[in-house]
Amino acid sequence: QEAIWEEGIRVASALEAAGHEAYLVGGCVRDRLLGRELHDIDIATSALPEQVMALFPKVVPTGLPHGTVTVLIGESAFEVTTFRHETSYSDSRHPDEVAFVRDVKEDLARRDFTVNAIAYGTNGVMIDPFGGQEDLKRRIVRCVGAAGERFGEDALRMLRGIRFAAEFDFEIDEEAWRGILSQRERLQRIAMERVGSELDKMLAGLHPSKAIRLLRTSGLLAHAKESLYPPLPAIEGTEAGWHRLDRVELRWAAVLLLAGADSAQADDWLRKLKFSSRRVAEVSAIAALRGYLDESRKPIDRERWTAAVLRYGVKSAADYIAIARAFPSVDRSQWDSGVGIERADVWLREMSAATVKELAVRGDELVRLLGREAGPWISEELNRLLLLVALNKLKNEAQALKAEAKRHWTDQNV
Ligand code: ATP
Ligand code: MG
């Protein structure tokens, strides 16, 4: 932490020694002032990209058109960007033109929020023309300049603003909030993938319920390019629940289940946000498992629960339990008397097999044992045995399984 910051200072000092200006800027300065962990260090400099490239032995021209060069030192990467300013955004997404400028203050003026527009000099002096330090103390997310204009230029900033407010538990300044309300239609211009990535950071962060509340009250997501249905759930005061879910996939499943989404809707949400098919499958399986429990006409007992586990997998079942513990209202199941999610968890852990692969007998062994021709009956039989094993009615041992298969097929064929 301290080491990477010091390394950043050395990069800036090297630029200064070559006659340029250089500052640590943006998220790293903000996070350091907040006492948060730093991830990446950004440096702003008056040096042009070619000059930066000439100065350091290991560089990658990561974003030359934007003036960005990545300087590699040991294991760390530093994004060094030439002071620049952006002119007119006719599409609410990309600046029409990027121009390099001489003055760090002009560079700071293009940044989104005051807390992200503080430059830290190698001598320890802050350049903070918009009062970012004051806003950090007051815990306020405020735009650099006129909010309506800034959100109009780049609609993603509205989501970023909500993300920062949630993550740091800050308030959104009044003008910024009005700016969001007046510019929210412009979210349409933003690629769904970028919307997804902001939402993902909000959910992965410290205060997902605050993020969801701000998203709901702003009505912002209703203006996304593709419609996301059902809308986000009203779930205030459940901060503790989020902290019990340590993987972001579980948090996504929780949001969607709280919103009342079924598996097709969960699938649709996450697909539209361009998440990996693995994540989509993982979350929609959890929703499908809930649907399966919901549609049971009888109260859910060990048999029904076990059938659900075999159908959707141990992982989905364990995830479902974790989510139901964090947010009890997610579990709408009509459990058999005296049964609930904790009992379901015990049953889950008692299952000695949950897939036919884990059975102590194989299909070809059944073929030999029963002297029948191979056919669909094999997998039926394996699944029948599996259910008995999963219910703890039969031991998962070759002897016992074979005896049961033999008994079953002899009875049937008398
Ligand atoms: P984090 O990395 O924690 O999400 P960050 O503030 O570092 O937060 P980055 O996306 O890494 O965010 O951007 C670095 C800096 O670039 C920001 O601090 C901000 O000054 C500026 N910036 C990033 N995105 C925008 C934007 N859409 N509009 C204006 N300035 C931006
Ligand atoms: Mg950053």
UniProtKB/TrEMBL annotation:
EC number from the UniProt entry: 2.7.7.72
Enzyme class: transferase
One Pfam match: PolyA_pol
UniProt keyword terms in alphabetical order: Magnesium, Metal-binding, Nucleotide-binding, Nucleotidyltransferase, RNA-binding, Transferase, tRNA processing
Top-level lineage group: Bacteria
Entries under InterPro entries matching the protein: Bact_CCA-adding_enz_type3_sf (IPR050264), CCA-adding_enz_C (IPR032810), NT_sf (IPR043519), PolA_pol_head_dom (IPR002646), PolyA_RNA-bd (IPR032828)
Cofactor: Mg(2+)
Positions of the tRNA nucleotidyltransferase/poly(A) polymerase RNA and SrmB- binding domain: 169-223
Domain called CCA-adding enzyme C-terminal: residue spans: 245-403
GO BP term, example: tRNA processing
Gene Ontology molecular functions: CCA tRNA nucleotidyltransferase activity; metal ion binding; nucleotide binding; tRNA binding
Domain Poly A polymerase head: 22-142
Family: Belongs to the tRNA nucleotidyltransferase/poly(A) polymerase family.
NCBIfam families, sorted: PRK13299.1 (NF009814)
Name used for this protein in its record: CCA tRNA nucleotidyltransferase
Gene source species: Cohnella thailandensis
